[in-house]
Amino acid sequence: MSANPIQSPLPGDNGPLRPPMNYRTKGMRINSARRYATNHLITALSLASTVVVIIPLVAILIYLLYKGASSLNLAFFTKIPAPVGEEGGGMANAILGSGIVLTLASAMGIPIGIAAGVYLAEFGQGKLLATTIRFTADVLNGVPSIVMGIAIYSLIVMQQKHFSAFAGGVALAVMMVPTITRTTEEMLATVPHSIREAALGLGVPRWRTVLSVSLKTASPGIITGCMLAFARVAGETAPLLFTALGNQFWSYKLTEPIAALPLQIYVYAISPYDEWHRLAWAGSLVLILMIMVAVTLVRIYAARGILKGAS
Amino acid sequence: MATRIKFQQNLDDLKEHLLVMAGMAEQAIQRSIEAYRTRDLSICELVLRSEPSINRLEREIDQMALDLLAMEQPMAIDLRFILSVIRINADLERVGDQAVNIAVRVREMGAFANIDLPVDIPRLAALAAAMVRKALQAFIEADAELAQSVLKLDDQVDEMNDAAFYSLSSLIKEKPELTPQSLNALIIARNLERVGDHATNIAEDVIFWVRGKDVRHNSSVAV
Amino acid sequence: MGVGIDVEHLNAWYGTTHTLQDINLKLPANHATALIGPSGCGKSTFVRCLNRMHETNPIARATGVVKMGDTDIYKDEQPVVIRRRIGMVFQRPNPFPTMSIYDNVASGLRLNGFRNRAVLDETVERSLKASALWEEVKDDLKKKSGASLSGGQQQRMCIARALAVDPEVLLMDEPASALDPVSTSKIEDLIFQLKSQYTIVIVTHNMQQAARVAENTGFFLNGKMVEFDSTDRIFTNPKDKRTEDYITGRFG
What we know:
The structure holds three protein chains of three kinds.
Chain A: H1 26-68, H2 74-78, H3 92-123, H4 128-142, H5 145-160, H6 165-189, H7 193-201, H8 206-234, H9 238-241, H10 261-269, H11 274-307
Helix pairs in contact in A: 1-11, 3-6, 3-8, 3-10, 4-6, 5-6, 6-8, 7-8, 8-11, 10-11
Chain B: H1 5-38, H2 41-72, H3 76-109, H4 121-141, H5 144-174, H6 179-211
Helix pairs in contact in B: 1-2, 1-3, 1-4, 2-3, 3-6, 4-5, 4-6, 5-6
Chain C: E1 5-14, E2 17-27, E3 32-36, H1 43-50, E4 60-68, E5 71-72, H2 79-85, E6 86-89, H3 101-110, H4 117-130, H5 134-137, H6 151-164, E7 169-173, H7 181-194, E8 199-203, H8 207-213, E9 216-221, E10 224-230, H9 231-236, H10 241-247
Parallel strand pairs in C: 3-8, 3-9, 6-7, 7-8
Antiparallel strand pairs in C: 1-2, 1-4, 4-5, 9-10
């Protein structure tokens, strides 16, 4: 190349510049067409998968509405089950019972879960105890709910020699804790270290920093985690089988067996009575609506939290 | 690993320019003394014609130095170097001016008889030129010791100038008809003494650059 | 009013790495001192030793004597107390994202138990005025979140937050390195004004900034302090060749 008018600007680069890439060759164009086709295909497949996944949910909802909506009346929400063979009655005691057990579970599970999460994120770097806790939480997460029920049965029911709402609450709490712990830990990990340093640099003690800065900044995410754990255990039946047991009558004492919606649905569904089947459908509808409302509230709250300027 | 390549190149460039300036100034002095020795008026004209290029170069060097100060944020030794260059630049320009003055004096003397004067202008000139040469050598080699030795030579030049003044003023008293030549010679001696002062300034600037010490306005004792 | 800090034989380790080796220097009261040096030379570590922030890292350790006035900050006081007397401004502005501007600036006092409304109001206003941010935010103090300000404003707010607890010394770790030139100028002007009331230590990569802002400068290299002198001396005629190589950019 004798008269190359283009001088290379880089020191040490003495070769002539190569000609620019030609992007319009036939090979390139064919590739381009194939790329577009693949793009569209994958998009279509993703869409189809999403639809396939949603179909069961929609189907269940529609079927429940069909089967259970007709049975939803004021009596359902205010009356306890009628004796076998009689018409009418409702699941009011189960709804109340679920409320009580879930409140109990939350009151026990949320503080413990958050405390464990705080320990893991703020104080447990590299410590053996932290690793142990994390491992335990992950294992607990995977324990089948019926095994949980049996475990609490032997630990509490057998000791106390009776079934109780308390035992039911404990069973559900133990199921909530791992989720809440891990979520809390992860949310706290997203709090930038610079924020903590800012507080420490102002002479704020460590515990106060964790409380007023780390937790406060991570709170939207932590609350999401709590509500997700709540929504999950709200529909659990197996743990309550051997702990709360269920109750046909009004009950609210923590030391007595208590009714719960999932339990009631189970009992009614496997019974031979049509009347009870009808109530079971209605109960299922109410349960799934309750969970959907809870999850929706979680979504709304989480979105608000993000928009509030925690960037 | 060399860093600030562009800056280093610019500094070297600045030094080159200053050395060219130095060469022109030295040459001007040499020529003016040659003109005195030979009373050759054409050499005087040459000196006068070369003056504008010295002035032009002075402006160029100052501009280069200003640009470096603004663009490169020089620190410590680089900053002192550039400041020294600016000062030496001014002194070299004035050396050129003195050469012009000498050439003008020689031209004046051409109108009068060429007589022997009791003053050794060539020797004084040689000493002044040697001072300039040494100071510039010290600049080229960044040699503060050499620069120091220039400071001591200034005394000799001053003495020779005083002696010239004394003998020439005596001559004027004794033989008033030789006044024009005597006065011109006296002024030439004075110009050469100023050249010696400028050489001293250059040496002081070199010491400032290399050592970071401002030794101006001291008597010529070792610092 | 500020107090001076005397450092004697300060050594620091991160795990087994000896990050600071026998540092001795005096930081004069009501002056700004700049600390310069290449990345990793220990200047940030040094500054964090001054307010015991390096202790927040479990593998960090320091020995030596650091005196603030008459107080040995390692022996005589708790870290929490020291950090209230020696404030810190960090490289990247770090406002609390869940708090408003007012809450941010007042956080130092609030989180330490101060509740008096009138005092908080007055302190917030005074601090924001001292950090030249008052005029820009005085109407949105409680409406705007701390994180919604621009970078330069956030950093000035962080300075206000640090000043609100009324420290005697202010440590600034590259306070303007994440900011544009105009914001940087404002911060430098601020330092100039704050000098009369506080002792200021500023870590900076930017030598021109050190030259503009500080009366004294210390040059750190590989965990040692190579030279400490008045700023004009360091930048026109440093004594140590390593200092000169660094500031003329021939380092490497």
